[in-house]
Prior knowledge:
Elements: H1 12-25, E1 28-34, H2 36-39, E2 48-54, H3 60-70, E3 78-84, H4 85-91, H5 98-105, E4 107-110
Parallel strand pairs: 2-3
Antiparallel strand pairs: 1-2, 1-4
Amino acid sequence: MKPRTSVVGLNDAYLDRIVESVTAAAPVESIFLFGSYARGEQTPESDIDLYVITDGSERPLTAGGRIRRNLLWMSHPRDVICSDRKGYESRKDDLSAVEHSVSREGVVLYG
């Protein structure tokens, strides 16, 4: 995983607001940016891919709904995937799973 300083195309204030919105919506352990923005390969049509690891106190699906609603202010299209730590850990070594991409290219925004 890469440090947050490596994000190209998104300023710190925007990333801070994303983190504030996600953490206000649900109890989370970690937030990762992945996909084209994490790789620095974004285009004007790119969405912002977020992977959120919840603290396990509720179903990730429930937390994800609140998180998505809290991010409606974003000017960029976005894709938010939520999981708990157990789900993330069980899939991160599966080459076909999104968790594998997150573990390899993800940029830590929180946690």
